[in-house]
Each structure stands twice: as C-alpha cells, then as structure tokens.
Specification:
290 residues, mainly alpha, 3 strands, 70% helix
Length: 290
C-alpha cells in the first residue's frame, strides 16, 4: 500500500470515528445534563471539520511535481498540520475559558446522569485505540497530518479520563467537579497542539534530520568502495520527505566515469537504506596525494 493510500485510510478511520463520537456525546450530554460531555462533544465536532481539512491537505500533498512546483507538494501536508494545530489550540483555550467562567460565576450545575460516565468511558477506549493505530501509520510514512490526528486522539483519551473523574465526583456530591473536568480538557489540548505545531514548522523551515540518522548516512557512505573521506552530509526535511546533499573525496586520478560510478552507488545506497529520502545529491571532490 502506497503512502497516499495509508494516509487516506487512516484519515477515513479518524473521520468516521469522530462523527460517531460527536453524535454519541451530543446525545449523552443531552440525556445526562453534563457540561463536560457537552464540551467534549463540541470538540468532537471540531475534530470532524479538522479531519476533513486534513484529508484535503493529504490529498493535495501527494500530487505529482509540476512546472510550478518542481520539488513536489509534500510541504502542503505540513501547512495543513499547522492549521490543524492552531484550530486545536483555539478549541482548547475556548473550552478552558468557558469552564473557568462558569466556575467563577458559581453557576448551579445539574448533577450529570449515569449515561455521562458511560460516554466518557467509551470515548476513552475508542480514542486510545485510535491513537495507537494512527500514530503507527503516521510513523510508517512520516506524516505530520496523521501525527496531528494521532495526538488529537490521545488528547481526547486523556481528557476523557479527567471527564470521567469529574463526572464521578459530581455524582457523589461535588457537582462543580464536572466543570473543573471541562477545564482540564484545555491543558491536554493545548499541550498537544503546541507539539504538533513545532513538528510541522520544523518540516516547513528545512530542519535537518536527527544526528543519529545523519551518523548512519555517514557510516554507509564511508564504507562504499572508492570513498577516501566523507566531506559533507547535509539533510533537510521537506514535508514528510528528506533531501540529502553529500560530498566525498575520491582518487583524483580516476576517470570521470569511474568517479561517477562511485557517486551513483552512494546515491542508490542512501535512497534504498532510507525510504523517506526523496532525493540524494552527490558531489565528488578530487583527492590528490602530494
């Protein structure tokens, strides 16, 4: 299965799950009179819209290169991930502010019904399963958008723990805990959104690969026949892909064809050993003993 199919399949699973959970939580909030579940339901509606935006971005990022975008469209996925992260951040802040206002105002809270506990538990289970599934797919294809979906699932799962505790407390004589639980959601959402935003911006500003990956590349290049020294290895993240620039020294008395053959082997080896490498540019420096 190619990268686009993996991404779209994971996105479709996320979309269907979010639609189900949004409807389920709206009904749960209506029958149980839980402010925390209602806040969570609103978040799920936002998740549905965000997933649709993400699916559009993933589809666009997989378009082939054209005359105006000769390096491809991979960065569009990171752009979408930034939008999703900002939307996630705004959602978290709005939920937190609303919950704090209601706590300060001393608004009388109706004790949530037992159905609210069921809704929180179901959400917790489904979202944790989705987190592990989506994160696995995101790591498989190095997708920022899928990683954003994954952390959104984990954020929902963790906030559902707080909701469950809050509702349980509210049903045992502490109704204000239901409102406090809705505020707890804010912290989880904001933390996840900041992490997603950082990862996406790194891929937009051509951040290099981690040191361990670069070290592995240098080791592979140095073991190729004809390489006297590895002079330079530069990498940059381009959406969910990697571009690599290599410089190495070879015997300066060789013919151009011989030097080109060594460079071609390095190029092929790097691209085969590192599937996320979209292109490896190799430059040969002549070395002449004095």
């Amino acid at each position: 299965m190619n990268e686009k199919k993996i991404a779209m399949k994971a996105s479709a699973v996320t979309l269907i799950s979010n639609i189900f959970l949004a409807l389920f939580k709206l009904l749960s909030a209506y029958f149980s009179h839980s402010g925390a579940i209602m806040a969570d339901a609103i978040q799920s509606i936002g998740d549905v819209l965000s997933t649709l935006v993400g699916m559009i971005g993933i589809n666009m990022s997989n378009k082939a290169a054209d005359d105006n975008h000769q390096y491809g469209h991979e960065k569009l996925e990171s752009v979408v991930a930034v939008i999703l992260a900002v939307a996630l951040f705004a959602t978290g802040i709005s939920i937190g502010i609303e919950g704090i206002k209601k706590i300060i105002s001393g608004e009388i809270v109706t004790t949530p019904g037992f159905f609210a506990l069921i809704a929180a538990a179901v959400t917790m289970l489904i979202k944790e399963i989705l987190y592990h599934y989506t994160k696995k797919q995101a790591n498989k294809i190095n997708s920022s958008a899928l990683l954003a979906f994954a952390w959104d699932h984990r954020s929902d799962a963790l906030s559902s723990v707080g909701i469950f505790i809050g509702i349980l407390g509210a049903r045992n004589g502490f109704p204000i805990l239901d409102r406090i639980a809705s505020v707890i959601i804010c912290g989880f959402i904001v933390k996840a959104s900041i992490e997603i935003l950082k990862d996406s911006i790194d891929k937009l500003v051509d951040k290099s690969c981690d040191k361990e990956t670069i070290k592995r590349m240098e080791q592979i290049i140095s073991t190729q026949e004809g390489v006297l020294s590895v002079d330079l290895v530069k990498t940059r993240l381009f959406g969910n892909k990697i571009y690599v620039d290599v410089e190495f020294s070879a015997d300066g008395s060789q013919t151009l064809s011989q030097a080109h053959e060594i460079a071609s082997k390095i190029h092929d080896k790097i691209e085969s050993e590192f599937p996320l490498v979209k292109h490896c540019m190799v430059h040969v420096n002549p070395y002449n003993e004095q």
